[in-house]
Amino acid sequence: MSADRDAEADGETPGAGAAEGTGPRAADSPANRLQALFEGHRLTPTQRRIAHSMVRRAADVPFLSSVELAELAGVSQPSVTRFAVALGFDGYPALRRHLREVAPAEQSADSASYNEYQQAVEAEIENLRHLAEALADPRPVRRAGRLLAASRPLPVLGLRAAASQAYGFAYFAAKVHPDVRLLHEGGTMIHDRVDAAVRAGASALLCFALPRHPREVVDTLAYAREAGLTVVTVADSAFAPVAKVSDLLLPAAVGTGLAFDTACAPMLLGRVLLEAMCDDLPDAQARLEEFDARAAVRGLFVE
Question: How confident is the model over 241-261, as pLDDT tens digits?
Answer without folding.
Answer: 999 999 999 999 998 888 899
